[in-house]
Amino acid sequence: MHLSTTSSGPRSRHSHQYRSDDFIPGASIDHVMALEAFDFKLARVCQEGLMDFEVRLRAAIAHTLAAKDVAAHASKRFLDEHNCDRPAGGRTKFEAWTSTWRGAVGAAAEDEDFLKHHLLKYPQQEVPIWAVTEVLSFGNLPYLFELMQTPDAREVARMFGFAHPRRFGAVLRMMVDFRNASAHGSRLFNRAFKRAISLKEHDTVGAFLAHLTRPDFTATPKAHQRLYIYAATLAFMLRSHSGGTNWHLTFGTHIKKLDIRLRAPGGAELLSPYVSMGFPEDWQDLALWQSQ
Fold first, then answer.
1. Confidence grade of residue 275 (pLDDT, cut at 50, 70, 90)
2. Residue 20 located in a structural domain
3. The pLDDT of residue 169 is above 90
4. Rg for the chain, CA atoms, rounded
């Protein structure tokens, strides 16, 4: 969150610009503190939406797989056998997945009564899918999703407004990155996430995200790695789900509170959603962020 000018000079082949040691005239510690307070609350708001999405995703995957078998996660017969047999670090993806979910169950068994009950009363039966999805980390849910058969994966994707499971699977990994940054105190204000969300016209149902398919939807560099496209995708998925949501209104309300007046020597605005977070200038007027 440097409030300094961008300098030219010797650069490494990996960088495009860097911050100089010269502070912008008028910049003060009060600006830094205000920006830090805004970013701290922003992370909490984003975490709230991501937790809501996580709960819905766990339920969607468990419900879809349980319709086939209560232990569909434990048999290649109910998953995509081709993906299950692909190599993954000296073993197959199914073997890696089996190790992952058994490890999660084993780690949680001491503290979770529902697991203790099952393991004691039904020692010969696999732990059911709804119990497994309860103890898996959010970061491991995309692995299970990618092993699902295409019709099942498509059913889950459509619950969140995505027409195709492959694109939805990629978005899940990006939501994991988003969640980790929000939960671990990382800066969100001018962050460029490592994965870029790139959406095409027919990837999603409806027109909520149509503006993101335009190459010039924002003036911020690395537009597809910025907070806006991540938050817009999250808002879209929550709004598409049958459970409904008001998170998009909460998020929008907080963004409007960013009101730190500071300009570069040339007069350009420095601390705004349009400059550093990838927001379109007309974002408040878009249907995605409206109450209905």
1. confident
2. no
3. yes
4. 22
**Residue 220 · residue 278 · CB < 8 Å:** yes
Instruction: Say whether pLDDT at 36 is over 80.
Output: yes
Amino acid at 168: F
Is the CB of residue 24 less than 8 Å from the CB of residue 59? no
The mean predicted confidence, pLDDT, of the chain is 89
Structurally, the chain folds into a number of domains equal to 1
The first and second tokens of residue 194, run together, are 């490592």
Residue 289 near residue 254 (C-beta atoms within 8 A): no
pLDDT digits (tens, 9 = 90+) for 137-147: 999 999 999 99
Domain assignment of residue 18, yes or no? no
Which contiguous run of DSSP H or E holds residue 19? strand 18-23
* 9 is a domain residue: no
Upper half-sphere CA count for residue 269 (Cβ side, 13 Å): 13
Domain range for 42 is: 25-289
Reduce the DSSP state of residue 54 to 3 states and report it.
Answer: helix
Q: Which helix (H) or strand (E) holds 4?
A: strand 4-7
Give domain status of residue 136, yes or no: yes
Asked whether the beta carbons of 51 and 176 are under 8 A apart, the reply is no
**Region for residue 9 given its phi and psi (left: phi exceeds 0; alpha: psi -120 to 50; beta: otherwise):** left
Largest CA distance in the chain: 72
Nearest to 6 by CA among 226, 280, 276, 236: 276
